[in-house]
Input
Amino acid sequence: MSQQGYVATPPYSQAQPGMGGYPAGFGSSPAQPLYGHYGGQPQSFPAPPTGLMKPVSSPSGMPPSEVSSQYGSNIQQNGAHPQRYPAPPAAAAASPYGQPPNSTYHTMAPQAPAQQLTNQMGSMNLGYGPGPMQNPQAPPTSPPAQQPFQTAPPPTMGQSTLGPPPAGPHSPQMAPPQSPLAGPSMGGHPSMGGHPPMGGMGRPFPGPPPPGSGGFQQPGPGAAGQPGYPQQPQGQFGGQMAGPFQGGAAHMSGPPQKKLDPDSIPSTTQVTEDDQAKRGGQVYTTNLRGQVPPLVTTDFTVQDQGNASPRFMRCTTYSFPCTADLAKQCQVPLGAIIKPFATVPKNETPLYVVNHGETGPIRCNRCKAYMCPYMQFIDGGRRYQCGFCNCVNEVPTFYFQHLDHMGRRVDLYERPELSLGSYEFEATLDYCKNNKPASPPAYIFMIDVSYANIKSGLVRLVCEELKTLLDNLPREDGAESSTVKVGFVTYNKILHFYNVKSALAQPQMMVVSDTAEMFVPLLDGFLVNFQESRAVINNLLDQIPDMFADTNESETVFAPVIQAGVEALKTAECSGKLFIFHSSIPTAEAPGKLKNRDDKKLINTEKEKTLFQPQKGVYEQLSKDCVSQGCSVDLFLFPSQYVDLATMGDVPTHTGGSIFKYSNFQVEMDGEHFLSDLRKDVEKAIGFDAIMRVRTSTGFRATNFFGAIHMNNTTDVEMAAVDCDKAVTVEFKHDDKLSEETGALMQCALLYTTVSGQRRLRIHNLSLNCSAQLSELYKSCETDALINFFAKSAYRAMLNQPLKTVREILVNQTAHMLACYRKNCSSPSAASQLILPDAMKVFPVYLNSLMKTGPLVGSAELSTDDRAHQRLIATAMGVEDTQLLLYPRLIPLHNMDVASDVVPAPVRCSEERLTDAGMFLLENGRSLFLWLGQACPPELVQRVFNVPSFTHLPADLSSLPVLDNPQSKKLRSIIDSLLDQRPSAMKLLIVKQKDRSEMLFRQHLVEDKGPHGGASYMDFLCYVHCEIRQVLT
Ligand SMILES: [Zn+2]
Output
């Protein structure tokens, strides 16, 4: 095995005897008991440093403040959680955790459907018949009447002849490799058949991230010790495939075709439908190692039987190759996408909370993995061997239990940590900052009251909404009210803090005008319980819009606002979140002042990346401060022009925060959209001050992380907060051989503070198979997870490389993945046939769509801020979100069955699927369109819009009237249910065929040529096919 440059220091040097067995050996000393005490008395804050008090006069109608130094009314009770220890003695281990055991744990027997995987492999050989597309002039996909493929200008693969090799007679059409990669205004690039920059296996963009931010390195041979692509023997894909074979073209065989039917290329909607038909409505039990879950689009119920639900963890493949060489050969990235707080549907069991009392969670002495189903009890139950590092540990006395004749603990099914994939531990003081119990978090609302926000009506809207929204702050399950504290700041060039202590008759304002050294001018009364201070808070929210109604201040600060929030949380010794409602680029004289550096001339140049690189310095330091305090930042932007979103979004994206953007905000048009986002954001499930560690069994380890995270070292993923929509994508690398017998185990442990201030550990375990056969890997791939990985790595790489290079690498790696399959796993067939692994057959359409997304497309028609925004939010997306983003749902509505509850099946995202007489809904999780064809039946238009016909529809329609007829009701209920499912709200855009706004809609028809550049799916597939053949020869 040549792993030079690929292997870094292995974390564990143990040999691997095999988890399933009962190897002899005695471990080191028993687990050290950790003595701690948690959550006992109500805690009070330390005496406030009164020296900081700085009463100031109010600029408007508010009375000067009366400063009190007492913290008394603000004592925080940590009371939402009962004390649960001491731990149950070994003999009385009846109910070690709070909720009743679920009877279904008793069905661990591997009765599961082994056959469900059997049909995946190899059955989908896409052969494009030996008779290639004959007509190099007419795009094979389009009947003459259809336009989309004929509009392809020369640089694209418009003449998509799917057949002869580049060297063949049609090479002029097939050869120009620049097509799908080149941006609209780019020239060609060197042929990719040579030695494009290429990272190590599964890692198109090598190099560890620099601390604290995305890592970006020029790829190249030997970069960061990665084996460069050129080291891969080109010849290994030698020409043995060239032969007179008729391929096993299961799906696409048939007589040679003159034109390629667009229906014949792999369809995402078909794949989605098939999976729903096969696995939808079923219970997915997680008792099997290496089991491939249903697709994210499929509706299924999860029963945890020892592995984490796919809602929490999904992998790019569920069968890892045994060696680094194999991994390098196939170039399929080995990754997991972890969404630690994923929402669990009501019909599934919420996570159990385990309390081991004063000792805290039981952990392996050596690798510190937490007790889990992969620990093997031996020696009559007195010891256990760690599944991750193989260390043999003593079982603590209180935890002892006898083993049954199978060698399993008799209390196996009574303890979540022994039988489930996911559960929580109560953490002891050792897991708390400074060994002090954590406090409930605080939410601080920071409203920009400069001219723009006042004029647009935003300030009044926010203040009005908060009066009711604050009743819905997140709370512990079963708790009567939320313990989350709230605070309020307004600002323009200076900051105003408010004392809203319940004892006050009127809120009090304190102004800080020196933004260079931000401090919080009041301690008592700034962060309060909403229920207690409701009257004074409502009073404040009533006053704010009027106080600043006559403002003409248009300049704002930004970094000092975040700084103020962090300082407030520091003073209160709690974690929390800042909700910042901001209008413009911060140009006022203060730290973090920004200037307009937007420059469209940089697009498609080497320097384009600088548009997306944040301004460092102040913001970098702020991110660190925020993370160390557990302060997450959510940014709501209401810009009317460029705001340098790349920089303004830097702190949110390193603190588990979110960025919302409403350009040219108007209350009437955008108010509801914004309020829906705000409500979801305030109410969502969330954990604070989190640190995540991903442990693995021997032979591989986590090497790279993508998400709204911060990393101070190479292993600890820090998140100031992590909510139910945020995911971290993890890449794994081999550092030794993996064993088919023991598989590949991973454990994600997330230490965090709950919304009531409890410190907890959330554990997700997942076991994968390992195989020396690459066919197993390809069979167990998950395209949706793969594209999530590719999207995140490409979006990171574009900070350091020209977009052209990034796109080349994406295609190159795809071609290698597919070529490796063809060479090693498929039956021999003609070189003219494109053969794709079944589990990856729609990967090309996703990849092509990714390359056409705003960030990667390199078009001057797109706003730089929009591109930066899309790049940043994708960084924290889970698999569902990237799937939908890259392949939107296009739902035909003109034929819907109003009597049924069913949403009509989506069709392929292509103009060809639209009909003049049709009405379609398109959504991608970020945008929502209702498209109407010119010949849409007047009856339907009448019933949905209450106007007589298409021509009567006003151009600026932005919402649907509420009408009492089945069509209107059905359509609105479909839209409501879509909005309900998505993490962020979507504004409905109604688009009339041939209207100017149609351009916005068309860029989401991802199978077509992109309006801002990028190939059609058909052309791209041809192109990839060429690339594969180049790899193979
Ligand atoms: Zn261990």
User: Anything to note?
Assistant: The first helix runs from residue 171 to 174. The CA atoms of residues 281 and 300 lie 5 Å apart. The longest strand covers residues 759-771. The radius of gyration is 29 Å.
